[in-house]
Write a structure and sequence with these properties.
59 residues; mainly alpha
Amino acid sequence: MKRFSLRVWIGWVLILISLALLIWGFYPLEQKRRELRISPQDMQLPAIQEVIPHARCFS
């Protein structure tokens, strides 16, 4: 039987911890869905003067 080195054991432990965290990240703790209604007035783009203060030369 071949004996594994410490470096191989550390590698396997890191891989197992990474997989456990990956599975835990995809596991939903709550079975609720959050819905946020957005009105069409809130979806409008801002005027260019609000974004760039010195944009008067562009308009």
